[in-house]
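Hey L., structure's done. Input below.
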Amino acid sequence: MALSVEELRGHVQTQLGDAELTLLLNAAYDAITERYGPSGSITERRVGASGRLLMLAHRASAVTAVVEDGDTLAANEYALRPRGRQVERKDTGTNPGSLWRGYVDVTYTNGISDSQRDRVAIALVKLDVNYQPGLTGERLGDWQASYAANSVFNYEIEREAILASLEPDELVVF
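Output:
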């Protein structure tokens, strides 16, 4: 469930109208979906002849169904790996298998929750509303604003940092 413009106004102070805020909010959710997939349930088809692990396009919080080469697997025949990006074929369970075979359809719940999406959407809209390239200082009494020739603040860097905040910390192995 996406935020409404009314809910967004509780987080963002702006003189923009509802139509303009709706455009910014929709663009924020579109960016999140493009990078992290749709909210809720996702079904992906993979070719399973390469090993014990299948890589998912998006992080999963739970696998709800696996169909391997036309056969629906029991939950004890596969496991979601801890980081949520791989499904392992187990050599134990009802019909054990050492490798995935044929086409494998994996249905899973996207690992990015709606509340996480909302938090990032708010931050992206705030960035869009407040971005003033090169602004280094403001003053209200006898209004004054100063701008730098080369701004340290970079819209693309800030936007990328906001979107990347949905990614889990990478495991570092030494």
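The chain is about 30% helix and 25% strand. Residues 41 and 109 are 5 Å apart (CA to CA).

-- N.
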